[in-house]
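hi support,

uploading two proteins for the ticket. first:
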Amino acid sequence: MVSSNGTTEKALRDGHYAAKQIFCRDWLIAWSHRRRFEVGLQLARRLQGRRLLDYGCGDGTFLALLHAGAAAPAESTGAELDPFQVESCTRRFGGRNELRFISIAELDADSYRGRYDIVTCMEVLEHVVDLERIITQLWALTSDDGRLLVSVPVETGVALILKQAARRVAGWRGIGDYPGTSGYTLRDYWASVFAGAAQHIERPIYGGEVGPSFHDHKGFNWMALRERLRGRFSIDETVASPIPWLGPRLATQVWFVARKKKPEAHA
């Protein structure tokens, strides 16, 4: 279990995503997500940044856990696209000068450029359609000697078969959003199980008419993302979760620990 004090855990349980993830009624789903957070907390604490940004902070789970433990940053900002999540996080975790929540749109201000020693981005980039724009923004927000921590799901290899089976069972039990996950044909499965570092199947796009366009998990390729990140960042580590020693090809999630490249290095 991810450690937290009683006050923090109560606030966490009221979170939209935490209820479906670390407090999920399915023990396997809950354990996998808890381990993802534990690995991320270990990495963030090891880097010991003074200023941290959680880009796409969701319901604030990661920042709340980070500040409930030792070696918390002096200042943390959670940025989220959904105004409901910004309001909810501010209400549940507000009142602390070292922790605040803002809209992602505010990050366009010059005052945020190069401000953060650590930028975390957990379970966000797999949903992004205009990926290059977001990677460029993450690069701009990171300080010259800063680090980027990215967590994304593994949706290729044997892990995909196991995860799709778990999602199907969870859907039958009415747990989470898994009944809405795009289905795979036999050809999709074949291409995904044997995927390399290039995008292997076409990814469906949703939204766009009223809200922003986004992908679901179908067709996401963590290896292709790693190559895209290398345009702006140097990848120092690739860390698997929930069991790091199994490696990313047998994992459900993967973390990238990346170092910002100088402008001339990616020109």
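and the second one:
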Amino acid sequence: MGTGNESKLNNLMRMPRGIVLTSRWLLKRGYSYELQRKYRENGWLKSVGAGAMIKKGERVEYLGAIHSLQHQLLLSIHPGGKTALSLLGKAHYLTMGVESVYLYGKRGEKLPAWFMQKDWGVKVNYYASSIFPANLGLIEIESAGFKFQISNAARAMMECLYLSPREQDLMECYNLMLGLNNLRPDTTQELLEACNSVKVKRLFLYLAEKVGHSWFDYLDLDRIDIGKGSRHLADGGVFVSKYKITVPAALEQND
């Protein structure tokens, strides 16, 4: 192997551990498809699907793949909802069996085939929607030596409510909201104004007011469009006239 290729291999081995290396990204950095093939044949790289590889001897988890989706493929796909709240230390719950992770992206974005086909040891739930501008309310965190973006606590809570009541229990949302006592009113206000889901905005405001968080008093409700008409979210539930939503009786009675 020539000196130039040796230098490239050394640089490759110095890349962060625990991430996926995509072929397109490596190509832009001077690693031809032929060179990538040689690395695989020599055992320096291992394929994890079409167009995706990991370095020899490494075990890559789903967060390492998320880093690659964001930093190499420039996708907005990120951990959100309960997963983001858990990563932020805002949600503590036991999982029975395989852990579920919740990923969100903008409408039209798809997870690459290699991501979907790889067994990450977790159940992946992915939702593409346009309820928020793609990068609004995302924050960067670091884990295991690499960085990636996740939803901040306010956006993550709203992403939970986006799935309710069919895929996310509203009583669990109430319990999650209880732990969000230190949200920033300014960033929360921005998210609520930008949110395209009337259901999400009404439920978020209802829960925040119900649990009595002090930051709720600093929101400018006149600037938040909660639409018209009623939203029925529970059979046999209780109608909350202020927010024009029907919620489970157990939730409305919980103080």
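thanks. also noticed: The two ends are 70 Å apart (CA to CA).
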